[in-house]
Design goal:
Elements: H1 6-23, H2 30-44, H3 49-58, E1 64-65, E2 72-78, E3 84-85, E4 91-97, E5 100-107, E6 119-127, E7 132-135, E8 142-147, E9 152-158, E10 166-170, E11 175-179, H4 181-184
Antiparallel strand pairs: 1-2, 2-9, 3-10, 4-7, 4-9, 5-6, 5-8, 10-11
Length: about 190
Amino acid sequence: MPEVDTDGAIKAFITDAHAIVEQHGGNINDASLADIAHRMKEIAMWKNLEELADAARARGERLYSEPEGGFQLMLAHFPATTAVHTHGAWGVMAAHKGTEWYRQYVREDDGSKEGEARLKLVKEVRIEPGHVGWWYAPPNDIHQQVPDEGGAWELIMMSEPPASERLYFDVDHHTYVRDTPAARHYPAR
């Protein structure tokens, strides 16, 4: 099997993602996100993806980051159930390893009361290698990962760098807090 030029393949994917958005008239919708996700699946199946991501992290980088913000490509590991949270950007995911339930929520309230939020679960899908998913830009970027034992790995492309401060929701108590991923991403820890 010939060796893949991973750097070139990642850059080609990012170029294709831009072209897909343009082909859809600049609209971010199910069709454009599905096309990006389909194109991303091949990279998500690379056997050396974790090694590439580790090397990028060691350099303080993601797999790919556009200058001045813009598209970001990263490999994320979800060792445990995440809090229900936002990212501040739209994104596409392709499963690399492991399985999870991916839950997507929308707000039912108008957002006028700081710290209060009523959420409705609108999608719950099983994600395993070969599967893809996506979320929209705020305020429709509310989601949660619920991995099986052993965790799940996903290749994720976001429209811009994830927000450093995000919203973390308590669905049962209809509340949220603004905080950093380090402080709130895994509530059971």
